[in-house]
Amino acid sequence: MKGSLESGSRLLLLLVVSNLLLCQGVVSTPVCPNGPGNCQVSLRDLFDRAVMVSHYIHDLSSEMFNEFDKRYAQGKGFITMALNSCHTSSLPTPEDKEQAQQTHHEVLMSLILGLLRSWNDPLYHLVTEVRGMKGAPDAILSRAIEIEEENKRLLEGMEMIFGQVIPGAKETEPYPVWSGLPSLQTKDEDARYSAFYNLLHCLRRDSSKIDTYLKLLNCRIIYNNNC
Amino acid sequence: MKENAASRVVFILLLFLSVSLLNGQSPPEKPKLVKCRSPGKETFTCWWEPGADGGLPTNYTLTYHKEGETLIHECPDYKTGGPNSCYFSKKHTSIWKMYVITVNAINQMGISSSDPLYVDVTYIVEPEPPANLTLELKHPEDRKPYLWIKWSPPTMTDVKSGWFIIQYEIRLKPEKATDWETHFTPKQTQLKIFNLYPGQKYLVQIRCKPDHGYWSEWSPESSIQIPNDFPVKDTSMWIFVAILSAVICLIMVWAVALKGYSMVTCILPPVPGPKIKGFDVHLLEKGKSEELLRALESQDFPPTSDCEDLLMEFIEVDDCEDQQLMPRPSKEHTEQGVKPMHLDLDSDSGRGSCDSPSLLSEKCDEPQAHPSKFHTPEGPEKLENPETNLTCLQAPQSTSGEGKIPYFLANGPKSSTWPFPQPPSLYSPRYSYHNIADVCELALGMAGTTATSLDQTDQHALKASKTIETGREGKATKQRESEGCSSKPDQDTVWPRPQDKTPLISAKPLEYVEIHKVSQDGVLALFPKQNEKFGAPEASKEYSKVSRVTDSNILVLVPDPQAQNLTLLEEPAKKAPPALP
């Protein structure tokens, strides 16, 4: 009897340890790895907030793109020019669910941060240039302004999340730089509208990427893949 | 030669064409890509519309290339999606990448290609309707009954990992109704519906939507029959409560109407006003002070009709400030002069009256303190001495047998409690004085005046004396005073007092009067001693303030500093007989 009990408990211990070892890919993060003193907002709240903001940014981007397409791009075939035009295409972002699920959360988070950072500059110029665009409808301009603000907010939140999930890691990886300003300012109206179209198209896509990755991470880290 | 060959070929082609034209055959018309949809952001399907086939059997092929690639692929699966469709499996699906898709129609005569369609899977997400919709009626005990709707996420959506975020919308209506009742749920896969109509058949449908994408189709209708006896306790209970409260209201209204005032008085009894026993307001209003006083008299008073006896008492006159006699809201008194008297009566315990009657009652039980204590301007402390010297006002002792001459001391005001400034000429600030505890009608007259002096404002005294002079009111006040003087100070303790009191300073030289007589009305007729003139004894219309009583039978009076009072004194005095025992 005793012997079986002992062996049973040993087996249990073995199972537990093996589980821990096997579950490397899934991180059940301690809420405050740096100690309770450093945590002011719980990780769950940070993620909730980040997901809300990223969802909002993607909604705004989609609406803005659709507005622009309706007003300036009908029958112009701008889409053909928009292929391969995103400045962030150099980032190795996962392209489907399997790839995303196999990507480690650290990598995913640094990708998100890279995307957010690389859009700071283009968003700023987008607002300036849309203002200068003749007859720019308020629907586009107001959304551009809003997106620029929310992007900054999301970047802040992501940096906080990153600091909590991967403590000690200093995220200083380079991010893609946008160099499309001259094309936004060109005299040729068609060329200019085409440049705007590209920018809005890429913005919609990248905001979708950020939103999807964040929602994935949220379910993985906070809800343990049980959303 | 060559020319001949070329022209021959052209001729043959033209022949061919004309032959086919004659047959009605032509290359196919351009097909048209209708839409592409992804049910779960992992696969997608595209559908096209074929054009005219040109009379010949036509094949359709779908070709595509991805953004950033040059390689052209052909559709991997033409079957799964149904006719004229192309299904892209997981292997062939990439998100965030533009697909350039073209459909080609090929027949014998030629090939026609559709316009390319640029597709990004991210933006073509449309899920299937939710699955496994179940309806269940539940009525747990002690709780409201409800319809429990359950479902599961649509197929091909990975919700658990967070790849696919989904929202649901349910709508239901009774079978015959036209409007749907819709409910939106952000995440959960169940819903409870309350407030259903019994005996109805309900139809339920559900659909869903991804976080960014298109709404699904409505699921097929599910129906459920609510049994006739389905308890809708809630409403019936409320109806019952409403009827009950309505009935109660009616009863109350009826009762109020019938009983009216008596009910109100029953619920809210009127607050009793202050009353003096035996004091009839109406008599006062009528101005019949005699009757009023008689009424007062009839309450248990020590026999005061017999005022031949002179009561000699030591009374320490405490120069309470005007506050004492100040407007205490007395309903019964409309005349000013009356007020001080009345107030005095109420607070008649001399010192105690200065502050509050309650204090007096407390102090009555205290052992007698050192009588020679000077009264400092601090009110409560002052109280103690005189209080102790007083026997309880509330417990009148009969001193009818004894002759007591009330001894009045004029004292300075109690500056602490009373705001009215004292005329310094009149009073020495250091003396406290008591109202006459028990003074018979003899004292009453004095008391009347003394009370006014007790009042410690010239004005009040003046007024009081004025009113007293007028006669009737004076009587009234005197009567009141007698009432107040029901209790008697302890003679023993009282007596040593005047000696103990050191500076018995009065502003004016003392004038002595002799008591002439005490009339039935309780008026003390006095003769100023120093006055040489002796006239016929007048009626009890002469009043003066009693300064002190000496040798147990001499009343020391102080003329009122007011001119009028002085004149009173200066009138021909009457010789007062010696104090009666």
Written overview of the protein:
The complex is a heterodimer of chains A (227) and B (581). With 227 residues, chain A is mainly α. Chain A is 69% helix and 0% strand. Chain A has helices spanning 2-22, 43-72, 78-82, 97-102, 105-132, 138-165, 181-184, 189-222. In chain A, α2 packs antiparallel against α6, α2 runs antiparallel to α8 and α5 (105-132) runs antiparallel to α8. The longest helix of chain A has 34 residues, at 189-222. Chain A is elongated and about 90 Å long. The mean pLDDT of chain A is 87. By secondary structure, chain B is of the alpha+beta class. Chain B contains 16 helices and 19 strands. Chain B has helices at residues 2-23, 233-259, 261-267, 281-286, 289-298, 322-325, 338-346, 351-355, 357-364, 379-389, 441-455, 458-470, 472-484, 491-494, 496-500, 563-570; strands at 32-37, 44-49, 59-66, 73-74, 85-88, 98-106, 111-113, 117-120, 131-138, 146-152, 166-174, 181-185, 190-193, 201-210, 222-225, 511-518, 524-528, 545-550, 554-558. In chain B, the strands form five sheets. In chain B, strands 3, 4, 6, 7 and 8 form a five-stranded antiparallel beta sheet that branches. A four-stranded antiparallel beta sheet of chain B has the order 12-11-14-15, with no helix packed on it. In chain B, strands 17-16-19-18 form a four-stranded antiparallel beta sheet, covered by helices on one side. In chain B, a hairpin with a 6-residue loop joins β1 (32-37) and β2 (44-49). Chain B is rod-shaped and about 180 Å long. Chain B starts with a helix and ends in an 11-residue tail after the last helix. In chain B, 39% of the residues are buried. The model of chain B is unreliable at 322-507, 531-540 and 563-581 (pLDDT under 50). Chain A binds chain B through residues 55, 58-59, 62, 79, 82-84, 89, 93, 95-98, 100-101, 205, 208-209, 211-212, 215-220, 223, 225-227, and chain B through 41-42, 67-68, 90, 93-98, 100, 118, 120, 122-123, 158-163, 165, 211-212. Chain B: Residues 1-24 form the signal peptide. Chain B: Residues 324-384, 458-499 are annotated as: Disordered.
